[in-house]
């Protein structure tokens, strides 16, 4: 995990917005937090991994201190398992109690695995992906990480009476196109589209927008550990823009969707994939 050293304060378009990022200690989470901070926001990082959370807070504070005043006061790190409804609800309440509101929730926690053919995919692997990426509990118990986050962030935004809010679900290009070897992951990410469509349809009346973001492979351990080198070369050769995504490409889209520039966008499918999902 590293911050982008070239990134400078941008526009102030997120000035004092309060932005929660789940999976906040991971690769995309940290870089998105950096952009949000540099655009003026206060950020809450929620993650299961306490050690990484501490590293994330320190790295972000150090990385932003020449650009913004007292960055450590604008970052809250909370250890929580986002598949546990009570833990997630409490983490969101703690965010509101600390910073006084909730403007954006980026539901970004997720897991992947080494590419596995459908015919060799175990129920356990399928279940685990759906549990963390889409739901929690057992297959019969349709609670979702994203569902839980959507529900509780949505309630807080509705009850605030602010008439606005942005909820962004981290899906994947694999949630738009079938990528052999990724059945369990792809299904869990495709399901997020549906969740966002329902969220957009029901929460629009409160001014809450719900959208999905679909990155192609990101230059990150999550992606590079999934595929053998020759497969990555094949994927790159088929990518119109000829490179993997960088975490900051996703961060740029998330900050846009968090901003008032995106105030009329909801239920949208936002590809950040160098043209991969060409359908
Ligand atoms: N990296 C890629 O190539 C890629 C491509 C498309 C989509 N995505 C999606 O983007 C998101 C972030 O990916 P990343 O590359 O930053 O991965 P990452 O592994 O660096 O970060 C994921 C974070 O989620 C956290 N997490 C996992 N389960 C959790 C739980 N139950 N509760 C709380 N935190 C939990 C992990 O601790 C980790 O810090 C994921 O949803 C991923 O599926 C990634």
Automatic annotation (TrEMBL):
Q: Which SUPFAM superfamilies match?
A: NAD(P)-binding Rossmann-fold domains
- Per its record, what are the GO molecular function terms? oxidoreductase activity
Please give the superkingdom of this protein's source.
Eukaryota
Identify the InterPro entries for this entry.
NAD(P)-bd_dom_sf, SDR_fam
- UniProt keyword annotations, A-Z: NADP, Oxidoreductase
The record, for Pfam families, names: adh_short_C2
> So what family is this one in?
Belongs to the short-chain dehydrogenases/reductases (SDR) family.
- Please identify the protein, giving its name as recorded: Uncharacterized protein
Query: Which source organism?
Result: Exophiala bonariae
The taxonomic lineage of its organism, from the top, reads:
Eukaryota, Fungi, Dikarya, Ascomycota, Pezizomycotina
């Amino acid at each position: 995990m590293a911050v982008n050293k070239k990134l400078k304060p941008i526009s102030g378009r997120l000035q004092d917005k309060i932005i929660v990022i789940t999976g906040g200690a991971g690769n995309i989470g940290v870089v998105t937090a950096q952009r949000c901070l540099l655009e003026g926001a206060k950020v809450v990082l929620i993650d299961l991994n306490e050690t990484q959370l501490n590293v994330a807070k320190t790295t972000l504070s150090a990385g932003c201190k020449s650009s913004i005043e007292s960055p450590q006061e604008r970052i809250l790190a909370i250890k929580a398992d986002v598949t546990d409804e009570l833990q997630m609800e409490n983490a969101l309440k703690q965010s509101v109690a600390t910073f006084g509101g909730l403007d954006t929730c980026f539901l970004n926690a997720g897991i992947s695995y080494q590419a596995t053919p459908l015919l060799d995919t175990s129920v356990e692997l399928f279940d685990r992906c759906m549990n963390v990426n889409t739901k929690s509990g057992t297959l019969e118990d349709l609670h979702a990480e994203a569902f839980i986050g959507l529900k509780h962030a949505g309630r807080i935004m509705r009850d605030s009476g602010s008439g606005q809010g942005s909820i962004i679900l981290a899906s994947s290009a694999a949630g738009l196109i079938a990528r052999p070897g990724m059945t369990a992951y792809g299904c869990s990410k495709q399901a997020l589209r549906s969740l966002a469509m329902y969220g957009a349809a029901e929460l629009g009346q409160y001014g809450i927008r719900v959208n999905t973001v679909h990155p192609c492979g990101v230059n990150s351990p999550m992606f590079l550990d999934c595929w053998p080198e020759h497969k990555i070369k094949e994927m790159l050769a088929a990518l119109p823009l000829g490179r993997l995504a960088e975490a900051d490409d996703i961060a740029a889209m998330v900050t846009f969707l968090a901003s008032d520039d995106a105030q009329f966008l909801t239920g949208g499918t936002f590809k950040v994939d160098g043209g991969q999902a060409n359908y």
